[in-house]
TrEMBL record:
Keyword Hydrolase part of the UniProt annotation: yes
Entry-linked PANTHER family: HYDROLASE ALPHA/BETA FOLD FAMILY, PEROXISOMAL MEMBRANE PROTEIN LPX1
Protein name: Alpha/beta hydrolase
Keywords linked to the UniProt accession: Hydrolase
Native organism: Candidatus Segetimicrobium genomatis
Entry GO MF terms: hydrolase activity
Residue ranges annotated for the AB hydrolase-1 domain, each copy included: 9-255
Amino acid sequence: MVTARTPAVFIHGLWLHAQSWNNWIELFRATGYEPIAPSWPGIPATVEQARAHPESIGGYSITDAADHYAGIIHSLASKPIVIGHSFGGLLAQILLGRGLASAAIAIDAAPIKGVLPLPFSSLRVAFVALKSPANAKRAVSLTANEFRYGFGNAVSAEESAELYRRWTIPAPGRPLFQAAFANFNPHAASKVDTVNATRGPLLLIAGERDHTVPPVITRATLKQYRKSPAVTELKEIPGRGHSLTIDSGWRGVADTALAWLRKHAL
């Protein structure tokens, strides 16, 4: 009798292509899961194509992305585990709150509505888009120096430059505006059903040295779930920045995720 593999859906964040999950896909497949890593709506199939056609990427919202991934999940044979990084971590929480995932792992996740801390380093990264209202309708790219500050600050300059060359693409600016003003909007796109008592388990992972999503944001996210009896846990990984899913230490983060899934028999 063949046992069906548990689906695992990987969701990238802003400025990284879905192909940046390739190592994770191979590991999870070897571990017995059926992993996929679809891109956000509008993003071409390769890094090179995405860089060549930024006009196809701009304008998409958090809700557009969440509904896009919900449609993908509905096509699967069973509820998946959803694993997201940065804004992908925010989307993973939205999908879990909707009851579409059996569990979720949110790695250095962008803040959900209700999270109040706004560290200077986060503002500095977001200002790449927020400095011009026109960026809400178009795609925005990072320079190598901006990537070094926002993603690669915990790795060598050489590794940061290589990660930038290999994985970065333009990203829609609109989600950054939506997240920045979420707490002033009662219908914010980044709102998550944090009181859902029937949802699956959630693991929040924070990189200790992350400039884009410092641990104070992840700890504040954990507090938003305090009224739900569902499993919500936090793991802070020492010495890691926002590139923790793609840099040379990715395997330690992936092993942390796999150990948590095994603990919960997922």
